[in-house]
Amino acid sequence: MAAPFTLRAAALHTPAPDTLEHWPDALIAVDASGSIQSVQPYNGQTPDNLLTLPPGHILLPGLIDLHIHAPQWPQLGTALDLPLEQWLQDHTFPLEARYADSDFAAEVYGAMVPALLANGTTTALYFGSIHLPATQILAETCLRHGQRALVGRVAMDHPELCPPEYRDASAAQAEADTRSLIKAIRALPGNESALVRPVITPRFIPACTDDLLHRLGKLAAETGCHVQTHASESDWEHEHVLDRCGCSDTEALGGFGLLTRRSVLAHGNLLGDDDLALIRETGAAVAHCPLSNAYFAGAVFPLRRALAHGVRVGLGTDIAGGAHPSMLDSARMAITASRMLETGVDPALPAGRRGRPGARIDATTALWLATAAGGAALDLPIGQFRPGYQFDAIAISPGSNLTLPPGEAPARLLERIIHTASRANVARVWVAGREVA
Ligand code: GUN
Ligand code: FE
Fold first, then answer.
1. Domain range 5-60+383-435, CATH class
2. Atom 11 of ligand 1: nearest residue by CA position
């Protein structure tokens, strides 16, 4: 527990997809548990423990990465010219297999978590590797550095897709290891406030037997844990599931009991209307990973269509399928991709037939995806400056490529931040009221 404090700062947040709220001079009171007590305009009040951000800085909610593969950190930016299935077999599975070595895990995760915090990622929903000890190390590393995290030991037992050297020995073993991780994370000393939480993590249907998927569905109902997996990512993956299950990923996941209010499906590029309706009904969410989708899916997630269905959607880097650790880059890419979807990109087609009208998003929606929407997708009180929410925040400072002219309209300031800010502009970072970077 930290001491209660009040922060005086210019702040903005995006509580809804098209709503930007701005405080030119706010007082945000934070209690000892890191919870926001009040947000008010500064009026000459003199609270105890007052902290003031320098003029020119802007406070934003902390960024929430809704889909990231921790063990893929060492291959960031490489082999992205390959199709997904080959990238997994030739690069990703061999790399992830190395986390049998706990020293390697400690070294990689010990470097990655502070780097992500420095980029402003205050919450991450992590896929780990199949190894219980390495995944516990990931959870401990997040806790030690003060990053809010949801950590899953990846489950994958299918003998056709998973190589013998990187595969769960059996469905029963995968379930047992998942149970052990849940217990271990819930019992971590220092984790009484559940800053770090366990996640049930079947990699994707092609990598898991029906037996394993059933077991993990039951475990989700039994434990109330979050669930994460990949769904309808690429043509190859989507068709593999249609062939094997005779239905879409979403329908199959529902049948296995893996669609809950705490489930996050990564990608979802090929979700149909029936899938979106089922996702909405079950309260599951989608992690939109725009950069990775450009490489592995050759598609743009139909974000506006999903939102129109009432589906909760957040934003992910999909490291290392996406090569940008900064969620600011993901937000920017979400805008770019939506613009390309809206207009279409093939100049050989007449302009009126190239694209999907109404697909675009702007900087406000992009920040919402990276903050409030991520919090809603995780069913956690994060991503907004609002009483009862956790004080997870970043201070953006001008410099490098970013200028923040005084007196400019809030929507313009946010546009500048989303389009030109980077790690260099993330001046301070708080999670649960504790300064962590
Ligand atoms: N599908 C199954 N595993 C993966 C992965 O590691 N990355 C991506 N992008 N898709 C996957
Ligand atoms: Fe992924």
1. mainly beta
2. 230
